[in-house]
Amino acid sequence: MEHNFGPVMQNGFVVPDLDTALEHWTQVMHVGPFFRFERIDFGQVWYRGQPASDIDLSVAIAYWGDMQIELIRQRNAVPSIYTEFEGRGLTGLQHMGVITESVERDLIRLAAQGVTPIQHGSTAAGMRFAYLSTDQHPGAMIELIESSPRMLAFFGAMRAAARDWDGSDPVRRVG
After folding, report:
1. 106 by DSSP, 3-state: which?
2. Where are the domains of the chain?
3. Shortest CA distance to 14 belongs to which of 116, 120, 101, 87?
4. Which of 3, 15, 24, 164 is the most buried (most CB within 10 A)?
5. Alpha-carbon torsion (21, 22, 28, 29), positive or negative
6. What SS3 class is residue 83?
């Protein structure tokens, strides 16, 4: 049977406290360095068909081998997949990310199977994404992340930093 999605390259965790999560991942798990973004700038975002560009997110990203670890903390109560997840009393693994050549092409293909985007859009830098209605089981939501040379280079630089990480400077602020 052919898989619906490419290999998982990211585990995304919704956390109640980003600083505490970073301490755990760097000090206990020895994963790092994390690149911390205090506010993700979105170009456009839709959540359940409604504009949602006012989502205020802080995220931190690191690599554990080839697996990207993303820690997410939403700082406002605007409806989103993150506040919905927490509203169900959940924290921890919220989604798994996969790289795709075309978010649009995958959404068309998946619509025929009843899989639809719950939240989708792009960052201000142009990275396109779509979180899909595959979350009947907590942690099983899939995020499609559209590949581009700029995104691959950015992720590659983070992966290289992790390969050479000696434990110093565990959290690096970006932007």
Report:
1. helix
2. 8-164
3. 87
4. 15
5. positive
6. helix
121 to each of 5, 51, 88, 130, how far by Cα in Å?
A: 19, 10, 24, 6
C-alpha 27/C-alpha 19 separation (Å) is: 12
CATH number of 8-164: 3.10.180.10
Which has the closest alpha carbon to 122: 35, 70, 53, 38? 53
pTM of structure: 0.96
**Angle (nearest 5°) at CA 170 between 164 and 172:** 100
Q: State the Cα–Cα distance between residues 16 and 62, nearest whole angstrom.
A: 18
Dist CA 40 CA 166 (whole Å): 27
